[in-house]
Amino acid sequence: MRILHVSDCYLPRLGGIEVQVADLIRSQREAGHDVEVVTATPGEPLPGVHRITARMPFDLPVHPRGTGHLIRIMTQRSPDVVHVHTGAVSPFAWMGVLAAHRVGLPTVVTVHSMWDPVTANLYRSLKTWNWTGWGLVGTAVSEAAARPIRRVAGPNVPVHVVSNGLDLSGWRPEGPARVPSDEVHVVAVGRLAPRKQPVRLLKLLEAAKARTRRGVTLRATIVGDGPARGQMERHLRSKRIDWVEMPGRYTRDQIRGLLAEADVFVAPAPRESFGLAALEARAAGVPVVARSQSGVADFVSPGKEGLLGRTFDELAGAVARLAGDPALRGAIAEHNRSTSPVRCSWPVVLEGFERCYERAADASSGRR
């Protein structure tokens, strides 16, 4: 199958969408498909990567005449399906949807972000989701991400959930399990962006430490970088907190090594559409604490793969509970080590997208 992906953001930019789309392309190529990508992200030439770039304020990944360029590439390449990847607001990606419609190509649109009320109202006002006439097939990366889309799209437009993918073999824990003790290492991994509320993560760790039973030593490592790093460092200094380390960005191999030393992984962002870092931790055998209303709830069940909370207090209590209960922590870790989140494995994800491609092809042929 000839697949053409369209994404505002792509390598060498590093982020959730960029890495996930790159991994999807690699997995589809390994499965024997002919796969290319069109992006508005500048970078070095790469095989199968078409870069449509323009000098824009703040290096925004968009092109003022992107639709015309996309139509030209789609006409030349003649793919069997166009797979568009969008975030909350992705102008270049929606140009890809328009271009595919004009060329008459089957189109799948994956939404990688969680729509907040403002974003949902924007799409509702633009009436973007009149998809039945265009024969588009929509997907989201989690049930949490799909819910606001379904409310905007309406009952006549199905929005399928196809999980983000992970090479589970690369995260499977090696060696013996950590022996639960009263020295508890809490880990968080992610981009330190204001929308992720990283300072609130520090306050969460403080609250959890204050609730942890006497005799338990809590320390934390927060991996990542971003515009909120300075604010976080100032908070640590002002509170004289010396038990939280912020080593910066890690490679995947470094993250694997860190997870091998972790007792608890925390992913507290309320609007997390999926939570790839949390999935990596779960696959590595680490108990996960996350928001029940986030995409992490798709692969973490309370008391099984970790603990979920809806509020700040519930999350702080969950971290404190795991820290103070080595038997519970050990049982969850053993479950995570002995089982795999198969529905997030690449074979299952590829099968899910192939079904969506078939639906898009059927819808496209029905319009002709």
From TrEMBL:
GO molecular function, one term: hexosyltransferase activity
Domain of life of the native organism: Bacteria
Domain Glycosyltransferase subfamily 4-like N-terminal: 15-169
All residue ranges annotated as the Glycosyl transferase family domain in the record: 180-337
Keywords: Glycosyltransferase, Transferase
InterPro entries recorded: Glyco_trans_1, Glyco_trans_4-like_N, Glycosyltransferase_grp1
CDD domains: GT4_PimA-like
Keyword rRNA processing attributed: no
Example GO BP: carbohydrate derivative biosynthetic process
Name of the molecule in the record: Glycosyltransferase family 4 protein
Organism, scientific name: Herbidospora galbida
